[in-house]
Request: fold
Amino acid sequence: MLFSPQIPLQLEPRRDSRFEDFVSGPNHAVVEALKHMPAEPGSSIFLFGDEGSGKTHLLNALCYETRERQGRAFYLTLKRLPKEAIASLQGLEKLDLVCVDDLHVIAGDEAWEEALFHCFNRIREANGRLLVSSRKRLSALDLGLPDLASRLAWGLRLPLLPLADNDKLAVIDLHSNVLGLSLPEDVQQYLLKHHDRSMTALIQTVENLHQAALTNKRRITVPLAREVLKVARE
Reply:
């Protein structure tokens, strides 16, 4: 076996997510709007797109940009957060930027919706900046609190569009470089042709290739990629 899929990847730490590391493709205008947020007190953006479209990268990139400008930024993902974590929303209005990821996860949860509504209002009253992401557009979210939907509709609502194949290859190449890999072009093309085409799956496969090459002291080739994909499907 090349490696155990259950063993966490032990790779070198990645650099912070930054705007310059993001392949925007058809989303250039979205990225530019986010870049302008640090200079726009009181701005609010609702960002939506499919899994793997780059939402988390962009939220963290904006946090990084804000801190580079000596601002105070906070990133919060709503995945798997217990009810007790609601208390962590207190005081966020004192920051320059608050980024809330994965809003779709708590849609329909009365306690979370109420807490976020009041948090977002406090941020607005303090003239802070708010960036919220979701896999679903605002109108498709099953929010039980109409006031929360109305609050999110006050700002810009921006979609992240799917990347074309050449942009996906650029992401694969960029991620390979972050890992210190030189991923041959034929391997990149093979992954795009024979694998799940979502960016989440493609990036995970690049990391699996890296681990398999290190574990077995092999060069990254199409045959190795074929073996790694076979293991992933088992």
Confidence is low (pLDDT under 50) at residues 1-14.
